[in-house]
Amino acid sequence: MTLYPDQLISPATRAFLARPKRMLIGAEWSAAVSGETLAVLDPATGQAFATVPAGGAADIDRAVAAARRAFESGEWPKMRPVDRERLLLKFADLIEANAQELAEIEALDNGKPVMMARHVDVALVVDFLRYMAGWATKIEGSTMDVSVPLMRDRELFGFTRREPVGVVGAIIPWNFPLLMAAWKVGPALTSGCTMVLKPAEETPLTALRFAELALEAGYPAGVLNVVTGHGDTAGAALASHKGIEKVAFTGSTEIGKLVGKAAIDNMTRVSLELGGKSPVIVLDDADPAMAAAGAAQAIFFNQGQVCTAGSRLFIHKSRFEKVVEGLSGIAASMKLGPGIDPSTQIGPLVSAVQQQRVLGYIESGLAEGARAATGGGAGGEAGYFVKPTVLVNAHDAMKVVREEIFGPVVVAMPYEDLDEVAHRANDTPYGLAASIWSNDLTRVHRLIPKIKAGTVWVNCHNILDNAMPFGGYKQSGIGREMGRAVLDMYTESKSVIMAL
Ligand code: ADP
């Protein structure tokens, strides 16, 4: 970290980076049983700046055992809901108090602009944990009048209870490391579960700081365990572990299917939040400048490494040139740089692998006849940068239109009428999100039910709210996160019938 001027990295972040990195298993900070480690690279330079344990199956076993002990004995299972609420609020307060440090670690680890990390990622984490804390005291069942034919002369009483599902294994991706951790940790801890969290190998650092703050907040040992390590070892061991009751996964559809199969073999409850190829649909009444700015935000936010990224831009043919011109102008003007520099608008992609994948997609689009209106290649001298790219001259069968790119690359295509665009927008295996740009309420309302996606935005994109369920149709996943709906994913329903 000697590359960056002192003022860009606060003393708290430097102190965190200087501490040896250990996994949290039970009450202990420990190395991997194998002694193996993995290097954490700065995506803006490609240089290693931290080392974390490379946990494996043996470490997952230890962490699951610690989570099991905490779930079944000690103070956690006896803790009153109001005390779980208080604890989660305290955890949120600590994250807020350390927001700048967490944002800097996230920016260094993932490459994302530090201002975004602070005012989007960390801000959303704090709000979400506070929102989830309130649910601890509001998890409820119902009472029923029971009718049983053969017991006419007995008085019967029925009710349901919701109980914490048990030990949760959470596997999260590298694009929003802290936020994706919070989306799992919030509902697990508010509903009384215990958990083992495995961050992505590319971005393990904020999860470790998160774990320190959880201990500081006062969570009993074993309630939250963090195992760093690779996906095909630690991740696979967690997904297939017989000692857990639920797997919560966010990541690619390809790995999500493996995780889902491993979970179903043990009948482990599973929620999957997977990939997307979200359409942005600009109607003929939309203001071209507003649509261009919206489309830029939809695809370039977080370097396009967003499962809801608006990567297919359908523009009514009457607006096509204007919107593409506006979008390309914005793309060309965005400042590339390291995430830790507050003036950066587009950071590097997370890894060399991701950069090569995205560049490969751009090349395939160009080879199939698309043209880059702007961008179209790598950026910067070192690090994993890709220039914000707008592809035109594309058609629906191209790989760049069909597959998730997960980078700052949008394909803009004209359309003529609403039925046509609804059909083309749905012509994808994914169904995570979509946005519609128009002030024509009637046509917008007609389009919304036709779009097969878990979230539809109107005149905005990538806007999330804690109270709104989030998840995918089709191959974008199973289950919902956030909102009241997430509680169903972390609790079991128990029906009780009493003969009085
Ligand atoms: P991406 O393609 O965006 O890197 P992945 O789906 O590969 O996303 O990774 C998301 C998370 O899944 C990461 O924490 C990763 O370590 C983990 N993972 C990768 N492979 C496996 C696997 N075979 N089993 C379980 N988890 C895995």
From TrEMBL:
The keyword Oxidoreductase applies. The active site is at E273. Residues 30-496 form the Aldehyde dehydrogenase domain. Its EC number is 1.2.1.16. Pfam families: Aldedh. PROSITE patterns: ALDEHYDE_DEHYDR_CYS, ALDEHYDE_DEHYDR_GLU. GO terms for molecular function: succinate-semialdehyde dehydrogenase [NAD(P)+] activity. Keywords: Oxidoreductase. It comes from the Bacteria. The keyword Cell cycle does not apply. Belongs to the aldehyde dehydrogenase family. This is Probable succinate semialdehyde dehydrogenase [NAD(P)+]. The gene is thmS1.
